Amino acid sequence: xxxxxxxxxxxxxxxxxxxxxxxxxxxxxxxxxxxxxxxxxxxxxxxxxxxxxxxxxxxxxxxxxxxxxxxxxxxxxxxxxxxxxxxxxxxxxxxxxxxxxxxxxxxxxxxxxxxxxxxxxxxxxxxxxxxxxxxxxxxxxxxxxxxxxx
Length: 150
Ligand SMILES: [Zn+2]
Fold this sequence. Notes:
Layout: H1 4-14, E1 25-28, E2 41-44, E3 49-53, H2 57-63, H3 72-91, H4 95-108, H5 116-143
Helix pairs in contact: 1-3, 2-3, 3-4, 4-5
Bound molecules: zinc ion (ZN).
Zinc ion (ZN) binds at residues 84, 88, 95, 98.
């Protein structure tokens, strides 16, 4: 079994980055209750560390690899997650833009634009886009209600 640290080094290498140039990364076995069960990573406030969940299937596959960094598709997935979370650390909470950074990173590390991994992240992006456009409609409906001055 490869360590979680060595898997991250594989992912950063694929991104052409080093740990020194990247936000601090820490590991957790399972996402805590306040984070989505499906989350692969999240940002730990207030120090803006990236916390990577190591019980994901991508991590399991990458750690079981015969040779270090040889489970390339799993490493690509983790690289994409890291790019997504780095975007949040640097730029804030916008999910759509963070997914865009993730998709760009996936192509950069050699993921197939017609492949399952790229498609999965594209769907996740579309899901948040739909949610936020509905929230936007709701927000503008609310702001058009005139509240009489006290
Ligand atoms: Zn995000």
